[in-house]
Amino acid sequence: MSMSLEGTVAIVTGAARGMGAEHVRGLVGAGAKVVAADVLDELGNALADELGPSVMYRHLDVTDPAGWETVVAQAEEAWGPVGVLVNNAGIVTFGSIEELSLQDWQRTLDVNLTGVFLGMHSVVRSMKMAGQGAIVNISSTAGLQGLANLGAYVASKWGVRGLTKTAALEFGPSNIRVNSIHPGPIRTAMIDGLPDNMAAAYPIPRVGEPSEVTAMLLFILRDATYTTGHEFVIDGGSVVGSRVGSPIE
Ligand SMILES: NC(=O)c1ccc[n+]([C@@H]2O[C@H](COP(=O)([O-])OP(=O)(O)OC[C@H]3O[C@@H](n4cnc5c(N)ncnc54)[C@H](O)[C@@H]3O)[C@@H](O)[C@H]2O)c1
């Protein structure tokens, strides 16, 4: 059994560039109508121009509750109730627990975790109206392990993982599935400046491409119809272990 996305109304946050933009392309290719939301208006508008009338770009800071209400209302007015939500917007903040400022800690949690809460909080009524829905929250392999100097990011992504499971329990009886995707390093602006060889010791020794994450997203939305509350890891096997330091080289 698989679910068609033809005509489905989707909201993707952090959609102006990187993985979010690729998710918008994939969803449009699958027949969905997509509200692409971001704070980078120039890039977002360019994406909407590129993809045509199946995409509308809207300015949305995911930490803004009123902004969420507006975007959901505009989606409903244009196309009808929302069937898919991809909570993809995120920021990364580097710094040890000793050195990280409270402001950086709070901003990271606000965007990466509160933004996901607000997205689900604002969209679920619309999905209930539609009688079905699927939500995918973008966590990270940082939501599966600890990483030195990334405490705020790690805490936010573990939070997304836990909130996803709670949402799955609350929304399941309304025919709404909620899952999380956990990418390892993916070639976007977010990993610019990190060492080129960062993936050298992974089982698949390279960074991933946004299109590979989009393929997993579409699988979850279309085909994983009996799966909710779960983690979909796409990381070249990085959390499996490292070949470096094995007792038997
Ligand atoms: N690139 C990686 O290696 C990697 C790995 C694991 C998880 N992730 C996660 O994937 C998601 C997408 O990241 P990406 O790699 O495409 O990076 P990116 O920086 O290219 O994209 C993130 C997008 O989110 C938007 N954004 C930031 N703050 C926002 C806010 N307050 N409101 C609305 N939009 C906002 C940005 O403008 C940007 O367009 C993020 O949640 C990120 O944490 C990325």
Key features?
249 residues; alpha/beta; Rossmann fold; seven-stranded parallel β-sheet; 7 strands; 15% strand; binds nicotinamide-adenine-dinucleotide
What's the average pLDDT?
97
Shape: globular
The major pleated sheet works out as:
7 strands, parallel
Q: What is the assigned CATH homologous superfamily?
A: NAD(P)-binding Rossmann-like Domain
- What's the CATH C level? Alpha Beta
Report how far the terminal alpha carbons are from each other.
Answer: 44 Å
How many separate helices?
Answer: 6
As a percent range, the share of strand residues is 15-25%
Bound molecules: nicotinamide-adenine-dinucleotide
Runs in which pLDDT lies below 50 for 5 or more consecutive residues are none
Strand order of the largest sheet: 3-2-1-4-5-6-7
Give Rg in angstroms: 18 Å
Structural class: alpha/beta
Number of strands: 7
Number of domains: 1
Q: What sequence of helices (H) and strands (E) makes up the elements?
A: EHEHEHEHEHEHE
Kindly identify the CATH topology.
Answer: Rossmann fold
CATH arch. level architecture: 3-Layer(aba) Sandwich
Residues in helix, %: 40-55%
Describe the structure.
This protein has 249 residues and is an alpha/beta fold. The chain has a single domain (9-237), classed as 3-Layer(aba) Sandwich (Rossmann fold), CATH 3.40.50. It contains 6 helices and 7 strands, in the order E-H-E-H-E-H-E-H-E-H-E-H-E. The protein has a 7-stranded parallel sheet, sandwiched between helices. Helix 3 runs parallel beside helix 4. The protein is globular and about 60 Å long. Bound molecules: nicotinamide-adenine-dinucleotide (NAD). Residues 13-14, 16-20, 38-40, 60-63, 88-91, 111, 138, 140, 183, 185-186, 188-191 line the site of nicotinamide-adenine-dinucleotide.
